[in-house]
Amino acid sequence: MSDEGNIITDLGLGAPQPNGADTLPAAGIIQQYVKDLSVENPHAPESFQWQDPPQIDVQFNIGARELNEEVSEIELKIAINARCQGGSQFIVDLSYCGLIGMRNMEESHKHAFTYAEAPRILFPFARRVVSDAVRDAGFPPLLLEPVDFNGIYMQQLAAAQAQGEGEGAPAGEA
């Protein structure tokens, strides 16, 4: 450590940094919110009389939009359609977002945080919104099963590399 100008040398690992310089990688949630929510009960009130259990189709999509060098909006889209022989019992489309702060991170780590870790953090909150929306539509609450976003990310990364895309990162479909 040097007393001149409050500079700390980093033992040959790069240029000297001022005392208190923020050089460590950091990532976290700044804000989370419902960006869009649509709940349809297209066959009410008849659908409340249907006896057959619905087939529930759940689709996930992850999107990201960089707002500035350190902040991105991560969008977890969840589309649910519960169908019976009589038609759709309910349809829920949710766009649940989080503002994610990331700094001093390598691009590959930023990408992994954006498409694996951030959706994992946001999912329990989006799951509650879905459960409440289905309940408010007049049906028993729907509890979505946990999703292994990291596992899906790793599978998509391996598939992209196997196809010769090299550094091509996986898309946001889950």
Rounded mean pLDDT score: 86
What would you call the shape? elongated
The total of helices stands at: 2
**What's the SSE pattern?**
EEEEEEHH
Question: Could you name the ranges where pLDDT drops below 50 across 5 or more consecutive residues?
Answer: 1-13
Strand order of the largest sheet: 3-6-5-4
List the helices and strands and how they pair.
Layout: E1 7-8, E2 17-18, E3 26-40, E4 55-66, E5 71-84, E6 87-103, H1 107-136, H2 149-162
Antiparallel strand pairs: 1-2, 3-6, 4-5, 5-6
Helix pairs in contact: 1-2
Summarize the structure in words.
- Helices cover 25% and strands 36% of the residues.
- It contains two helices and six strands, in the order E-E-E-E-E-E-H-H.
- The chain has helices spanning 107-136, 149-162; strands spanning 7-8, 17-18, 26-40, 55-66, 71-84, 87-103.
- It has a four-stranded antiparallel beta sheet with strand order 3-6-5-4.
- Helix 1 (107-136) packs across helix 2 (149-162).
- Mean pLDDT is 86; it is low at 1-13.
